[in-house]
Write a structure and sequence with these properties.
This protein is an alpha/beta fold. It is 31% helix and 19% strand. The chain is built from 28 helices and 32 strands. The strands form seven sheets. It has a seven-stranded mixed β-sheet with strand order 5-4-15-14-13-6-7, with helices on both faces. Strands 19-23-20-22-21-24 form a six-stranded mixed beta barrel. The chain has a six-stranded antiparallel β-sheet with strand order 26-27-25-30-29-28, sandwiched between helices. The radius of gyration is 27 Å and the shape is globular. The mean pLDDT is 94. Bound molecules: iron/sulfur cluster (SF4). Iron/sulfur cluster binds at residues 8, 10-11, 13-15, 37, 41-42, 44-45, 170-172.
Length: 862
């Protein structure tokens, strides 16, 4: 038995995890001593042990589509990059990094690009996530300093969640908040979101405002604060901010946000009268064409009300990714330098001195959307993509794919062999995955934690920092990249933070620069910039600043052709583009395919029924999703998950629809509002297909890949699949069993007693228990009766399928929960006692409460 303390690689909460390896199997539990989670884990974190397998891994370098040795692949990268730099200059090269990288990897990439290749063109997927928050903090405080901790959330009197479905996107922080609310019921929670999300489960007040109208609410709140004696005199530019706010009366706010006056008033009064308040915000605020202004509108109300720089108070931007904050520390964004330095003469000179370079980039580089535009125009001729999947995650993804297809040199470092992005790679470097790599990450509350290796690196996988250093050597900069260990990189990064700092930069972890390897290895989670040190700003005059914000509507507005507004976001059990979580069957059970949430009134108008397939279209692309008709959705707006991509679905990619409209200050795309059209799609048939081996489906079939013991696809089509299935079986000499009715076709194929293929189809999607089918692939049914039961799709003599999975930890389905409610369970705790649901990670408790409300108080539900 071997246990290692490490950190979860998913969201910015940054939970501590204890990984245990026993006879080759990995299991995890929460680390009770870690101050981010004190032992809690959400369902994704709890399932980490299931993601450490090698299926789909990239285990060796690939050069021009062929397996290659490390030397050949690194030499090719070095030679081709050098040739492009020599012919077109450093601005023709770009790196696109990721909040999945460890700080040491990020530091190395930024140093090579900005410090030695000599262009600012390193940006990151964090641009899509929280660059508006960075801009907001820098404008207000003069530095990218998050002025809150998780303890502030727990100890506050009022917690406002705006543009944040923390119950699904930051589950452990949500659980901490829910626990604090149980302990101090007088604590008030306000959720501001167009949707009634799972987070509303603990809210005293929900404001379902018009999509994108949040700035109006906070500018109006500033007006109300000033009218109640707020004092903004200590802050620069307060007059301009307050003058604009003075025109935002409650009535005007209510109209702008499409909210009842009473609801706006209730929120304003709650904020003004709360002794302490924290505002938690994330993508719903940041991903906007005026995202930076929205962040400053939030910061302004905390400054003017004095709910700032003391315990239980502050504007708290949550980071989406595990190391988005680490990326901010090392200068992973194209608009900043390492260690919180900026493109100003004294910082440029200081950094050049520290790195010993004469090639340091002197101007900011291209931000993510502009960067891929420049690739498309042929101005950037080489891009190195590290640990991210821009072909899925950037807006206007068809244009991004076209740009990558045209780019003369695409290098991809990743743990996964086949992604939507890697199909354009000329060179692929196999990177080490979670559990294999070693370094540090920084969470939303500025807490640096160790990610420790507990598994041997498989195949030829290497750490990202090592790959960068090897390429740097081949470009002639080996001396500056002569690290032997991630610890060496960390020490350099920490030393830089204190270099000629003398209290002038908020980010200073130089106390950690001289840790021995042993001490670094044992490093306990450490928070930089303890709370309460922001009384002075980090601007030259040492003052904090309020930014004058004029609320702007979203750029995307509905019209006659595209009358609905599509919102995008995370679902509970998936992470990013699913490369890790999409391989775990139990994480696919909660929501197993792209869905589109639609209000009943819109569904009725468009004649769309719950569970039907739909097509969502914008001027840029089309997505297929299954309708979820829900009272929780605002009329006129839709919601679809952002996770699906070309590996997991045909036409499931939401960014195929999204326009590349960005906030002019932060460069962050407006991913939350896209004008679209929705229509029902009635395919001729829908089916479930299970295959023992890999299969290439006919191109006209709509498919979704699902995790399981064998290849599992949900299909839909206009043309029948029977001929193709029969030809496939004949080609492989399989014995075939068929059951055909007026509307259904069921097929089993066998080879020497082994089940090779199973297919059920009908006009509507047949309900098939995938765990039962997976079991039949492992051990074939032995009797003719059992085989016929399998062919029918109905387990013989057993109860029916459990329904949609609600509790992923214990695989508890909706039918079982409803049955337990019908038999007397009247609380989440009672359901937990009866079925165990909700008793492990607790992520499903909001849904248990929703099912309870629906069954016990149908008129109050939704
Ligand atoms: Fe991981 Fe969940 Fe914690 Fe986020 S909340 S760090 S996903 S365990």
């Amino acid at each position: 038995m071997n246990e290692t303390r490490t950190t979860c690689p998913y969201c910015g909460v940054g939970c501590g995890v204890i990984a245990r390896v026993e006879q080759g199997a990995v299991s995890v539990r929460g680390d009770e001593s870690h101050p981010a989670n004190f032992g809690r884990l959400c369902v994704k974190g709890a399932a980490l042990g299931d993601t450490t397998g090698l299926a789909g891994r990239l285990l060796h370098p690939v050069l021009d589509g062929e397996r290659a040795g490390w030397d050949d692949a690194l030499n090719a990268a070095g030679d081709r990059l050098r040739a492009i730099i020599e012919e077109f200059g450093p601005q023709a090269v770009a790196f696109y990094a990721s909040g999945q990288l460890l700080t040491e990897d990020y530091y190395a990439a930024n140093k090579l690009m900005k410090g030695f290749i000599g262009a600012g063109n390193i940006d990151t997927n964090s641009r899509l996530c929280m660059s508006s928050a960075v801009t907001g903090y820098k404008r207000a405080f003069g530095a990218d300093v998050v002025p809150c901790s998780y303890q502030d959330v727990e100890s506050s009197d009022l917690v406002v969640l705006v543009g944040s479905n923390a119950a699904w996107a930051h589950p452990v922080l949500y659980q901490r908040l829910a626990q604090a609310k149980r302990e101090r019921p007088e604590m008030k929670i306000v959720v501001i979101d167009p949707r009634k999300t799972a987070t509303c489960d603990i809210a005293d007040l929900h404001l379902p405002l018009a999509p994108g109208s949040d700035a109006g609410l906070f500018v109006g709140l500033l007006n109300a604060i000033m009218a109640h004696g707020g004092d903004a005199s200590a802050f620069d530019e307060a007059d301009a901010a307050c003058t604009i706010a003075a025109a935002w009366s409650v009535d005007r706010v209510a109209q702008f946000c499409d909210l009842p006056v009473a609801a706006v008033t209730a929120f304003f009064e709650a904020f003004i009268h709360a002794p302490r308040a924290v505002t938690l915000y994330t993508m719903g605020i940041n991903q906007s064409s005026s995202g930076s202004d929205k962040c400053n509108a939030i910061i302004n109300v905390h400054l003017a009300s004095g709910k700032f720089n003391r315990a239980g108070c502050g504007p708290f931007s949550l980071t989406g990714q595990p190391n988005a904050m680490g990326g901010r520390e090392v200068g992973g964004l194209a608009t900043q330098l390492a260690a919180h330095m900026n493109f100003v003469p004294q910082d440029l000179a200081r950094l050049a001195r520290f790195w010993g370079t004469e090639r340091l980039a002197q101007t900011p580089g291209l931000m993510a959307v502009d960067l891929f535009d420049a690739i498309g125009r042929g101005e950037v001729k080489a891009v190195w993509i590290m640990g991210t999947n821009p072909a899925v995650s950037l807006p206007d993804s068809h244009a991004v794919c076209q740009a990558l297809a045209r780019c003369p040199l695409v290098i991809v470092s990743d743990v996964v062999a086949q992604t939507d992005t890697s199909r354009y790679a000329h060179i692929q470097f196999p990177a080490q995955a979670w559990g294999e790599k070693n370094g540090t990450v920084t969470n939303s509350e500025r807490r640096i934690s160790r990610q420790r290796a507990f598994l041997p690196a498989p195949g030829e996988a290497k750490p990202d920092w090592w790959i960068v250093a090897q390429v740097a050597q081949r470009l002639g900069y080996g001396q500056a990249f002569a690290w032997q260990h991630a610890h060496d990189v960390f020490s350099e990064h920490a030393a830089l933070s204190g270099f000629e700092n003398h209290g002038s930069r908020a980010f200073d972890i130089s106390d950690l620069a001289n840790l021995s390897l042993n001490d670094w290895d044992k490093l306990e989670p450490v928070q930089w910039q303890p709370a309460g040190e922001l009384a002075r700003g980090w601007r030259e005059n040492g003052r904090l600043r309020m930014v004058a914000v004029t609320p702007q509507p979203a750029r995307a507005q509905p019209d006659a052709l595209y009358p609905l507004i599509l919102n995008s976001g995370r679902i509970r059990d998936q992470w990013h583009t699913m490369t890790r979580t999409g391989t775990v069957a139990k994480l696919m059970q909660h929501i197993a395919e792209p869905t589109v949430d639609i209000a009943p009134v819109d569904a009725a108008r468009l004649a769309i029924r719950h569970g039907e397939l739909t097509r969502i279209s914008s001027p840029r692309g089309v997505m297929v999703a299954r309708a979820v008709v829900s009272e929780r959705q605002r009329e006129g707006s839709l919601f679809a998950p952002m996770h699906w991509n070309g590996v997991f679905a045909r036409q499931g990619k939401i960014n195929a629809l999204v326009a590349p409209i960005c906030c002019p200050d932060s460069g962050q795309p407006e991913s939350k509002q896209t004008a679209v059209r929705l229509s029902a799609w009635h395919p001729t048939w829908q089916g479930e297909l299970f295959f023992r081996d890999n299969v290439t489906l006919p191109p006209e079939i709509h498919w979704l890949r699902k995790a399981g013991a064998v290849n599992h696809f949900t299909l839909a089509g206009e043309t029948l699949l029977q001929a193709w299935l029969m030809a496939w079986c004949q080609q492989h000499h399989w014995q075939v069993q068929i059951a055909r009715g007026a509307e259904n076709l069921n097929v089993l194929a066998w080879q020497e007693g082994k089940l090779m293929l199973a297919f059920w189809s009908a006009k509507r999607l047949p309900e098939i228990d995938s765990a039962w089918v997976d079991a039949a692939f492992v051990r074939a049914p032995e009797t003719p009766f059992a085989r016929h039961a399998l062919l029918s799709g109905m387990p013989a003599g057993e109860q029916k399928a459990p329904g949609r999975t609600v509790c992923s930890c214990f695989s508890v389905g909706e039918y079982a929960i409803n049955a337990a409610i019908a038999s007397g369970c009247d609380s989440a705790a009672a359901l937990g006692k009866a079925l165990r649901c909700g008793t492990n990670c607790g992520s499903c408790i909001p849904e248990l409460n929703a099912l309870l409300a629906k069954a016990l108080l149908p008129e109050a539900a939704d």
